[in-house]
Amino acid sequence: MSGKISVEDFGTTPEGQAVQRFVLRNNSNVCLKLISYGATIQAIEVPDKDGKVADVTLGFDTLDGYLGKHPYMGVVAGRVANRIAKGTFSLDGQEYKLACNNGPNHLHGGLKGFSHYVWDSSVEGDSVKFTYVSADGEEGYPGEVTAQVTYKLTNDNEVDIQYQATTTKATPINLTNHAYFNLAGHATIYDHIITIMADKYTPTDDDALTTGEISPVEGTLWDLREGVRMGDRVNSVPGKAPGYDQNFCITQPGDNQLCARAQHPASGRTMEVRTNQPGVQFYTASYLDGTLAGKGGAKYNKHAGFCLETQVYPDAINKPHFPSSVLRPGETYHHHTSYKFVLG
Q1: Among 3, 59, 127, 245, which residue carries the largest CB count within 10 Å?
Q2: How many CB atoms lie within 10 A of CB 259?
């Protein structure tokens, strides 16, 4: 125990590695639970307007759920989150080949990625720090990368996440957390009002890969600037599975810019997302189909949650006009994101 952080066992991987869970609490009865497997957000428990607490993230009660096949619930995705076209890129005149684990494209770091390793972990004051060293050549990427993700729960009900990384060779980096949120607990997201402060987005092809265009949201289904109830919109968004799975270009990116807001009027819960990244991927869990058993035996059906993944634009390594994802030796990657819960 260190302050309001407790540490407990959360099982052992098939390789014999112990996994720990860290439980952080604040004065408002908000609780953040993290596990060292994938540097994962395992739970965020938040009171509603009447003081009733619910877990507002999707996931699993035991390690077995995270060890099995699942859609990146709560994990840190990397070395490069989102998609890289055809699993290839060129950097400084050399071509690199990665695994294609999402149709014709590379997704969220590849066959294993940062999300399926046990990270080193430590309690540092009021924070929990996770560290993972990715070997030169892992998943096909160049350079040994040392990544650190630090979580803190503030008394302002803010889950604060700081990402840092260094490398021994030039390499693309794009870390994000892939938490699935539902401010109602275990239900659909149809009664949520989503606002995204973005006047442009990056259109995608049939394989959900960015085409390279940067298009205005004005007059489209991707205009979420005024707040849209998901039940009125999400099933109209075209795709292999109707719903959002899109990168939005934050209108005024900055060091701690408010980029998105989710509201659930019935519970009184609101979540605000701030970041220093140029984009945010909004995904409405359109591929969940009820076959995945989650916390408390809940069946996660289509649109059971939503993700707001702060990031560099997808496939930036292959699109020079996008914000750069390249990290070079001597530089430090720094990504800051926070999820603030406004109660009542």
Answers
A1: 59
A2: 26
314: which 2 tokens?
A: 């997808």
Instruction: Let me know: does 70 contact 76? Beta carbons within 8 Å.
Output: no
Question: CA 49, CA 343: separation in Å to the nearest integer?
Answer: 6
Does residue 83 have a known ligand-binding role?
yes
Phi, psi at 162, each rounded to 5°:
-115, 125
Helix ranges, the chain (H): 63-67
Full strand arrangement of the beta sheet holding 40-47: 5-12, 18-25, 31-35, 40-47, 53-55
Per-residue pLDDT of 17-39, as tens digits, reads 999 999 999 999 999 999 999 99
- 153-191: pLDDT as tens digits: 999 999 999 999 999 999 999 999 999 999 999 889 999
Q: Which residues pair with 96 in a beta bridge?
A: 89
138, 158, 272, 309: the catalytic one is 309
- Does the annotation count 116 as an active-site position? no
Other C-beta atoms lying within 10 Å of the C-beta of residue 84: 27
From the list 106, 178, 192, 264, the catalytic residue is 178
